[in-house]
Design a protein that fits this description.
Blueprint lengths: L8 H30 L15 H34 L12 H10 L2 E6 L3 E9 L6 H10 L2 E11 L2 E10 L8 H12 L1
Helix pairs in contact: 1-2, 4-5
Amino acid sequence: MVKIMKKSPSETAKLDRKTIERNRRIHMKDLCFKLASLVPHHHSKHYSKEMLTQQDQIDLAASYISQLRERIEKLKAKKEQATKSLNGSTDMSGSEVLDDHQRMRIGARLPVIELKDLGCSIEVILISGLQKSFMLYEVISVLEEEGAEVVSASFSTVDDKVFYTLHAQVKLSRVGVETSRVWERLQDLVY
């Protein structure tokens, strides 16, 4: 005959707390692993991710997030400055005051192409009028044909201008992307 021993409520509660705590630690470890995997390898080039402690990985991710925030602020300021320079003067309410001559002059400067080589990535900023002669997928195709993988693409419309921002990473870092060729092809596409 087997005698079944019942555990007291306090022992059961203690085991439940241990199980809950073990599950919480496993979940936190999984979250930290996911966070560390989101930080690009080039950001942690001085360290091997396997050799970093969990706290070091969290600090590295926090540093990366701070750098991204700073970059976003710089890009917002740059976009605002570009918008102001294209819009010309404003009245007291901040609305645009452009005569036909100024509109023609600004329209004559469009489209604008800016290409930044950031080492293992490329940033393309295009500013065009609403009556553009190209499609966004064509710009993406040019980048991909030249060996870059587009990781994000966005656009916004301000008045009669369309602002495109594309971020691409180099597919093969050994080969890279020839930015001068990308520039020429984009020039051919948009003009």
